[in-house]
Amino acid sequence: TLQVIQWGIIQEVAIYFFHKKRRPRKKGRKKRETRKRKEGRRKKEIRSGTVGKLKVKSMVIRKGMKMRGAKKIR
Asked: Rounded to an integer, what is the distance from CA 73 to the centroid of its chain?
């Protein structure tokens, strides 16, 4: 009878995991993410020049960085 009980428990666990996997995806998530990424790309403005003392072909300057002169080298 112990084996029978164990088998029952194993089945329960298996079913639980199986159901977890089969849950449907949240709708409308992917599109929003890609849109966000595109927006981020649009916000960055590429300018060529110097960053500190380095000569750089293209720097990525984010909107907020213009004032501070903190520039990210691409």
From this structure: 22
How many CA within 13 A on the CB side of residue 12? Answer: 6
Assessment of whether the complete model's pTM goes beyond 0.70:
no
For the chain, the distance separating the N- and C-terminal CA atoms, rounded to the nearest angstrom, is 67
Q: Output the six-digit token pair for 24.
A: 């449907």
| Nearest alpha-carbon partner for 57 in 47, 70, 42 | 47
Nearest to 46 by CA among 27, 16, 71: 71
* CB-based contact 73:51 (threshold 8 Å): yes
The pair of three-digit structure tokens given for residue 73, joined into one six-digit string = 């080298």
Residue by residue, pLDDT tens for the chain (74 residues) are 677 777 777 777 777 666 665 665 665 555 555 555 555 555 545 455 555 555 555 555 555 555 444 445 44
